[in-house]
């Protein structure tokens, strides 16, 4: 690089640096004088103060955990509350010998070996600041408290403390929707703000409890206390109160929930009801449920094993994680895609001999009605749930357009606003098959996709949502559980685009066909709509069960029953002003029209007819 | 034919610095033993790290300053690339991405190496130019300083980026940065900070800054340590409670008693007298560093030695200031005393550079 030749004056440079070094030295001495002065102030001027604190074994900052927000249904009925409970806390630094202490506790409280082992694990697993006590045994009885009090002198570092423990008064009825809290585990420990959770031992694990953890948790407070060497608090020097977590009010209606569970009876399945106008979830049933209270302070091995290994899978959230072939419950959307793309018109007809064949192929794709329905137009095809018509329509649409439209209705995407565990389901496409199966897309696969079988998988939530979307004539409202959190609403920033049709009248046409499913002479769900004082729209479906999706144990009698088709139904009412949209899935229920639709009818009646007998759960009362 | 050199000069060791380092290491041994709850294992580990650090220091001292000068630009570019690599493929721990994991070897923190490269780079750039630097040179120096600082800030590691930035700025200040620039920068800082505060920072970031400035407002987090360390220091009084007699520190009240907050243990057990003696030893180290700076024969060496010395002082000052509640809490260890191998090796490497500058003087070509 060429640059002008410059004579460097080393002497002058050296002098420059020298002046600065002297300056720096002066500066540093001044700062050190400051440090020494500070030390003098702390160690000489404030010596008395600090040594007194030190003598009394010292200032102690204790976190005060905030009370967790409660959860209510839309009528103000409590779904999750905080119940006072006495727990046994241990402060490790003050325990002289842990083993003897635990041995003594075991005999005093009549704990089993497993209880002791769990308590010891709690003590070692929990991250804590020094001198923070950890609850290890919960829900002490009066007698246990008394025994500890009597033996207190033999138990340094052990104390009985009143604290709040999460309680779910309706036990299994809202377990899947509300979720539950449990002890903070290692993974969560790494994720959470250690300061915000100081003194808190629980965190939302599933459902609403997890999704709105930040709002429910609140802000930690603290106390500056003086303690003596034995850990007794002498006085509180300063206290900042914690800020309680927000109370949440959900869209859920416990009465409707009770109706839904009652209608489902003892069967396994899922029911979800959505208010189309808001997307609010009115009922959320995944049956069987489980008692979330077991999880709060730590579930025993035996209890957990029973839940985990049950063939009925009570821990499995069927509403948002159950992946089922949607079957015929998507036909109305396929029909809308056909009209909107112009590949068929409302009046174009297909002849159904009981099966469908691709041109130049010998394979016969069967209609469920083996004898065939003869000439079928779109209206009749929906009313009769005619497979042949939809094979033909799917073939004309092709998988790409089918995928495009179904995705716009939310199939194969996560639709919920605040349901943490939601599975996306699967709306197959060429690209998906290339990536997942390393195979090209075959034309026959388009046909079975057209009747909601094959690779396609949807959750009951997605089916309820797509039905609400039709009731809304294309307006997207993401399904949500939260109504409000003391005035705060859930964040709605990412709502997908509404579904716009080229001809708005197509909505009315399809809804009319769904209405005829319920009220028409040949409708597949007409028996469920008998004597209704309002008009409803619906669509039945069945989903083939090829293998047991999640079954683990082998039980031939039970297995046979579990090979039967799942019964599906989606619908909304009233037709002219939709107030409720419902998806019902009854596992191995076989007939959507006969088994699933009546469940929906009961929900419609309960929600729309004012003089219905109110139904409710009995809450587990607090002890 | 060279004149026969004194022994120390032939092995390129500055005996004064070595002596002071050994004194500090001995103090460290006693305090660590007490702070760690009489853990000999910890003492051995720290001893091993110290041995490694000494070896690195002696090795570095063998290289001529001219050699370092020649490789500085390359080292700077390499350092930048490592910092970028940290952001791309770095290992995350406690929410910050600061380490590179070399397969089969240890984790390694590139910002640590930058602590040495930074003063070298600014010294390299300014050393070949007429001092005091013109506006253009100042501007380019600031670019040299700013790039790695921003990269480390992104990790995020506020404390380290500030310290590394400071080591570069020190070289600039020693080079005779004109007062009007210094004043200008200070004046410009105020509106810039205000604008950031009102228009850029989010609520939670502001809260973080406030806690940083006033840790006592966050008694469960940063402030917790401060409250406890003040009690430990204060209860030490003039003469201290005696070695291994500190109660505050031994009851685990101080969560970082053996690392960043070790001075609190020393202050509790050895009192004001102990703290003052320690500060005296540090001042002697700094005095020796400044003497080496004045004796250095070219601008590069002067700026480098001065910057290393001033940065050393900042470590001492910031650490003691933070533990005694004068300054915000930043993760700065007490040089040569705190437990931890990495910072020890980096510090001793810096002393190696000082020794090299001092003992290679006679061979430097004049002019």
Automatic annotation (TrEMBL), chain A:
GO terms for molecular function: penicillin binding; peptidoglycan L,D-transpeptidase activity; serine-type D-Ala-D-Ala carboxypeptidase activity. The chain crosses the membrane at residues 21-41. Catalyzes cross-linking of the peptidoglycan cell wall. This is Peptidoglycan D,D-transpeptidase MrdA. The gene is mrdA. Pathway: Cell wall biogenesis; peptidoglycan biosynthesis. Residues 269-604 form the Penicillin-binding protein transpeptidase domain. It holds the Pfam family Transpeptidase. The keyword Cell inner membrane applies. It is found in: Cell inner membrane; Cell membrane; Membrane. The lineage of its organism: Bacteria, Pseudomonadati, Pseudomonadota, Gammaproteobacteria, Pseudomonadales. GO terms for biological process: cell wall organization; peptidoglycan biosynthetic process; proteolysis; regulation of cell shape. Its EC number is 3.4.16.4. One of its GO terms (cellular component) is plasma membrane. Residues 64-237 form the Penicillin-binding protein dimerisation domain.
Automatic annotation (TrEMBL), chain B:
Keywords: Cell inner membrane, Cell membrane, Cell shape, Cell wall biogenesis/degradation, Glycosyltransferase, Membrane, Peptidoglycan synthesis, Transferase, Transmembrane, Transmembrane helix. It is a multi-pass membrane protein. It is found in: Cell inner membrane; Membrane. Pathway: Cell wall biogenesis; peptidoglycan biosynthesis. It catalyses: [GlcNAc-(1->4)-Mur2Ac(oyl-L-Ala-gamma-D-Glu-L-Lys-D-Ala-D-Ala)](n)-di-trans,octa-cis-undecaprenyl diphosphate + beta-D-GlcNAc-(1->4)-Mur2Ac(oyl-L-Ala-gamma-D-Glu-L-Lys-D-Ala-D-Ala)-di-trans,octa-cis-undecaprenyl diphosphate = [GlcNAc-(1->4)-Mur2Ac(oyl-L-Ala-gamma-D-Glu-L-Lys-D-Ala-D-Ala)](n+1)-di-trans,octa-cis-undecaprenyl diphosphate + di-trans,octa-cis-undecaprenyl diphosphate + H(+). Belongs to the SEDS family. MrdB/RodA subfamily. The chain crosses the membrane at residues 16-36, 42-61, 73-91, 134-152, 158-175, 182-204, 270-291, 303-330, 336-357. NCBIfam families: rodA_shape (TIGR02210). It comes from the Bacteria. GO terms for molecular function: lipid-linked peptidoglycan transporter activity; peptidoglycan glycosyltransferase activity. Peptidoglycan polymerase that is essential for cell wall elongation. Its EC number is 2.4.99.28. This is Peptidoglycan glycosyltransferase MrdB. One of its GO terms (cellular component) is cell division site.
